[in-house]
Amino acid sequence: KHISNLTYEITVTTFTDPDATGADRCTLDVHFGDGSMETVNRSNGVLNNRCTANVNTGDGELIYQNTIRKNRYITTHTYAGPGSYIITMSDPNRVDNIQNIPNSVSVPFFLRSTLVISSTVGPNTSPDLFYYPVDNGCMQKPYFHNPGAVDPDGDSLHFSFSVCDGDDGKPIPGYVLPNEINPNGMNNLEIDEQSGTLSWITPQAFGDFNVCILIQ
User: Fold this and answer.
1) Which residues of the chain have pLDDT under 70?
2) Which of 26, 62, 105, 160 is buried most deeply by CB count within 10 Å?
3) Using one digit for the tens of pLDDT, what is the confidence trace for 90-140?
4) pTM for this entry
5) Whether the Cβ atoms of residue 14 and residue 30 lie closer than 8 Å to each other
6) How many other CB atoms sit within 10 Å of the CB of residue 144?
7) Residues 199, 171, 185, CA angle at the centre, nearest 5°?
8) What radius of gyration, in Å, describes the C-alpha atoms of the chain?
9) Which residues pair with residue 122 across a beta bridge?
10) Long-range contacts, stretch 9-13, CB < 8 angstroms, 24+ apart
11) What is the distance between the alpha carbons of residues 147 and 129, in angstroms, rounded to a whole number?
12) DSSP notation for the chain
C-alpha cells in the first residue's frame, strides 16, 4: 500500500494451525527486495503468554471452528528510488500431507510480491483480497473459489496459475496442479483470467492441496 513518496506499507498475511507451536510465530522476517530485511511483529490478536510483552504481538484471529489461525504482520519501508522490488517471506513450517507437494512438511512456505515503483506511471497499491485463501470442497462435486481481489487504484487485474515456490523461492520439485493427482474422469481445473474464479470440475482425490494464484 502506497503511503507517500517512496514509502509503502507492507502486510504479510498467513494462515496457520493453532495447535502447531512451530508455526505459531510472534515475528516474521520480511525481505524488501532492495537488500534489506526486517523482523516484523505479528500485529493482530491479543497478547499471549508465549510472545514476550516487548514484542507486543498477539495470538492472531481464530477462524473456521478454531482450526485455522489468521496472522497479520504489518510494517512500512522507504525505498531509495524507482525500480522493481521483489518482496518475499519464507517459513519452514508447511502443512504435512499436501497431496500435490511431495514430502510437503519438509518444503518451506514462500510468498512473493513484486512492487514496481515508476517515476512515470506514479504510485501503485496492490489489490486487496477479501476472501480467505482457505476453503473446503467435496469429492465428485464442482468446486469454485475466488480470492475477491479489488484494486484500490481501479487497475484491471489478470489472474493465472503459477508454480508453488519453496526453498529459496525456487519452484517446488514434483509440484503439480491438484487435478493431476488423479487425472481420471471429469477432472478439469482452470482459472478465469478476468474474474479470478478458480473452478475444479470435479475433484477426484481426497486430501489437502496447494494452489498458487498470480495476480497482476
Assistant:
1) 21, 45-60, 64-65
2) 26
3) 999 888 999 999 999 999 999 999 999 998 988 899 999 999 898 999 999
4) 0.89
5) no
6) 12
7) 35
8) 18
9) 118
10) 9/74, 9/75, 9/76, 10/74, 10/75, 10/76, 10/77, 10/87, 11/72, 11/73, 11/74, 12/40, 12/72, 12/73, 12/74, 12/89, 12/111, 13/70, 13/71, 13/72, 13/73
11) 6
12) -EEETTEEEEEEEEEE-TT-GGG--SEEEEE-SSS-EEEEEB-SS---SSS-TTT-----EEETTTTEEEEEEEEEEE-SSSEEEEEEEEES-PPTTBTTSTTGGGS-EEEEEEEEEBTTTB---PPEE-S-S-----TTS-EEE---EE-TT-----EEEEPPB-GGGPBPTT---GGGTS--SS-EEEE-TTT--EEEE---S-SB---EEEE-
Residues in the chain: 216
Nine-digit cell at 119? 517515476
User: Is there a contact between 75 and 9 (Cβ–Cβ < 8 Å)?
Assistant: yes
- Decide if 16 contacts 63 (C-beta within 8 A): no
Task: State the CB neighbour count (10 A cutoff) for residue 92.
Answer: 13
